[in-house]
Amino acid sequence: MCLWGPRSAPPICGGRAGPTGEVCQMKTFACGAVVPGCTAEFAAETEEGLFEQIARHAREEHGLDEVPEELIRQVRANIR
Ligand SMILES: [Zn+2]
Would 60 be classed as within a structural domain? Predict the structure, then answer.
């Protein structure tokens, strides 16, 4: 479930519109910010949800069974 913000909210995730035409306030992360060349992008309503997606992606696409602490820091710094 997405928390669609009020119509007056600033577009903080690129201005993508939700099902009701409102701007989504989800947190987003582009893997390319920490893994040069990777084009994967993620969006979730919470940081926890975002990290779940990133951890799965890191395992399946980058062969990382666990996301290293350093990478988590970089990811956190690049969440928009
Ligand atoms: Zn990636």
Answer: yes
Q: In whole angstroms, what is the distance from residue 35 CA to residue 62 CA?
A: 9
73 Cα to the center of ligand 1, angstroms: 15
pLDDT of residue 73: 93
- What residues have a C-beta under 5 A from ligand 1, the ion? 31, 35, 38, 40
- pLDDT per residue over 51-65, tens digit each? 999 999 999 999 999
Give the distance (Å) from ligand 1 centre to CA of residue 36: 8
Q: Which domain holds residue 34?
A: 27-78
Number of domains in the chain: 1
According to DSSP H, which parts of the chain are helical? Answer: 47-62, 69-78
